[in-house]
Design a protein that fits this description.
alpha+beta, 44% helix, globular, 5-stranded mixed beta sheet, 361 residues
């Protein structure tokens, strides 16, 4: 497999070229969608499935989609079963001391109190959560900034908390999982490796560790269990692994179908978070355009086997206009189709896009 084929095959496995996938497939493919920005996650879902906003909200309710800390301990939208899998794989890790803000005893006491409350009262919004702890503990009023997030993260790491995705970022809708029983750590990690390789492969052990955020000491035994099932893939001097053999005819077919295709992803795309090494996806100069210093992952435009630009949008008074920074050629009509899909999802009138040409160093 050459570098161009790797680029196309990985994006294919991630569903970037798919416009009508069913919702459950889209969520299971990535083990959820990164949702530091929940709207960006929803846009990535819409690009892969073509669903409407109301259909997505109905799916959230039907499947019990949750918003929670997962891979790399960042916020994702995912199924309850996938959250249980991720938490089970991480169950022997300790949250860093910095999470506790110098108030670990109070964090753990508050976490226990909320755990007990959720058994009798849910969903629990932010106001009810705050009122309950304020009435219970005199020290709560002087808690450190971000104390409450530490409480929620402790409960999540114990498999005792989920958050519903329909609430605003400022509010919470906290619920208790249907089951708080965790899976065997080694088996859960092995299953997570298989899931990762199915959605992101070919890839390496180091890629999985980067994607998951799980320490190598916790991953290596499970990797050794899975490795006999895997197929090696050579790309240049690097050996990657995949679940199933990839026939040359398959690579040729994908290349023929998608080599000239222009597609987009929303910010925090899985292609940008799924691997240790990024040059398969973007050159260092392009990475500088996509990865901000403060951790924002910008929305890429891909065409002709490369990342050729990034995009943003402005939504006001029911109208949406897109802005494109480009450094490579793309198909204008195909990009229009992608933007119109997002406009439809956001229930806004599409007013076109403006292009600014950038020259990369």
């Amino acid at each position: 497999m050459n570098r161009a084929e790797l680029f196309t095959y990985r994006l294919f496995r991630q569903g970037v070229f798919t416009a009508q996938a069913d919702l459950e497939t889209a969520f299971l493919r990535h083990v959820g969608f990164q949702a530091q920005n929940q709207r960006a996650a929803a846009l990535n879902v819409a690009l892969q499935t073509g669903v409407t906003r109301s259909e997505l909200l109905a799916f959230y309710r039907e499947k019990g989609i949750v918003r929670s800390w997962a891979q790399r301990w960042t916020i994702h939208l995912l199924t309850p079963a996938d959250l249980q899998l991720v938490v089970s794989a991480r169950q022997h890790e300790r949250l860093p001391k910095a999470y506790f803000l110098g108030a670990e005893d109070h964090v753990r006491v508050a976490a226990h109190e909320i755990d007990q409350l959720l058994r009798t009262a849910e969903p629990l919004n932010r106001a009810a959560y705050t009122d309950h702890l304020s009435a219970k503990f005199s020290w709560y009023a002087a808690r450190p900034q971000n104390f409450d997030y530490a409480v929620l993260q402790v409960l999540t790491a114990q498999g005792r908390l989920q958050m519903l995705p329909a609430a605003t970022h400022q509010d919470w809708q906290l619920v208790a999982p249907q089951t708080t029983e965790l899976l065997d750590q080694s088996r859960a990690t092995a299953d997570l490796i298989r899931r990762y390789l199915r959605g992101f492969g070919p890839a390496t052990l180091a890629d999985f560790i980067k994607w998951s955020g799980i320490k190598i000491s916790q991953v290596r035994p499970a990797w050794q269990r899975v490795i006999p099932e895997l197929t090696p893939v050579q790309v240049g001097e690097e050996q990657l692994w995949t679940l199933d053999p990839i026939a040359p005819a398959t690579l040729q077919k994908l290349n023929d179908c998608y080599a000239q295709t222009t597609v987009i992803a929303a910010s925090f795309s899985a292609a940008m978070t799924g691997y240790r090494e990024k040059t398969w996806f973007a050159t260092p100069a392009v990475q500088h355009q996509l990865w901000s210093k403060n951790g924002i992952l910008r929305a890429p435009i891909m065409a002709n086997g490369a990342v050729v630009g990034k995009w943003t949008y402005h939504l006001s008074k029911g109208q949406i206009h897109f802005n494109v920074d480009s450094w490579g050629p793309f198909d204008h009509d195909q990009l229009t189709t992608q933007f119109m899909r997002l406009a439809q999802f956001l229930e806004a009138d599409y007013t076109g896009f403006t292009v600014t040409t950038l020259k990369l160093d």
